[in-house]
Amino acid sequence: MASDYTCTLKEETLQLAIKELNENPKTRILEVKAFRERILQYTGLQPRTDTEFLLRFLRARKFDQERAFQLYLSYYRMRKEDPKIFTGLKPSCVRHMYQSAMSFPHTHRDREGCQIYLIFPGRLDTSHYTIEEAFKVEFLNVNKMIEDEENQVRGFTLLIDYRDFSMSHFMMMNFDFAKRVSKLWQDAFPARFKACLLVNVPSFVDIVITLFTQFLKSKLAQRVHNIGSDWKKLHEYIDPSCLPVDYGGTLPGLPTNESWVEEMMKCDEKMEKESKFGFVDDTLGKDSDRKQQDAITNMYCIPVLLLENISPVINIVIIVIVVVVIIIIIISSSSSSSNSRSSISLLYTGTAGS
């Protein structure tokens, strides 16, 4: 199947792929072939195996065959285990969500060449739409953007503007949502998320952001930056010429999403074909390695598993309790440190006096 692929990377991006992702143009097709053969040997799976698709996973895991294989399986497990999100998933089914312009790609890239992805959570009409519908749009958008090989190599920078984000939006979020989102973007999707920039963040959202980052691996958590309205800080990541005046930039305004919506509405047939791939039985590939991995994951996620079905109100109460406990620990630690320093000072004074 080598003939089904033609590399579209720019020369500069290709050199970046060679340096950062261990991609070798001379052996690329052989790597894909080995990856494909392993996938085809896996029972209970109806896989998509074209070269362009498989390269997404290899690049996302720096051409580490084992890690790319686990990511590939996780991608299809996710689709099987969350039918509420992925059954019948296609753009036309959430056309109403696209009309709200809640999220779409920017026409510019950041200083590192990453695709800027604009997200406006406050535009979600909580009286009519659900968090699952919003989740569908995010998956469809990123799934479309990752078709661009430049994005596979350079990755994404998320610019999330919390303007108009209210308590009604806050109440829609819970531990289950946080777990699902983190699981998708970290462990089950072939994309490189290089930075997450948060602007216009209300004070009551700070707690949620802090707790949400606890679900992220340390490397990804370090890429989440609460910019607030510090536009100078934002400009370290994105040049002012690519930003509107509202963000301290020079553009008259952000781009609209009309052309993006038009492009997405043409993807129904492609998504219908995509839905035919995946696990075809109930095993979900749960071999001994998977069971061992699940056991380890669950051991560290017991609080999440216990809280995932609790109502938003109780979630908020729990969040407040957790924050209070953290504050008490910090104060106690600070007090202990202060007492320790005082004791050392007294000991030193007494010794000097004698």
From TrEMBL:
Classification via PROSITE patterns: CRAL_TRIO (PS50191)
Transmembrane segments: 313-331
Superkingdom of origin organism: Eukaryota
Domain CRAL-TRIO: 91-255
GO cellular component: membrane
InterPro entries attached to this UniProt entry: CRAL-TRIO_dom (IPR001251), CRAL-TRIO_dom_sf (IPR036865), CRAL/TRIO_N_dom (IPR011074), CRAL/TRIO_N_dom_sf (IPR036273)
GO molecular function, one term: phosphatidylinositol bisphosphate binding
Pfam family, one: CRAL_TRIO_N
UniProt KW keywords: Membrane, Transmembrane, Transmembrane helix
Entry protein name: CRAL-TRIO domain-containing protein
Organism, as annotated: Pomacea canaliculata (Golden apple snail)
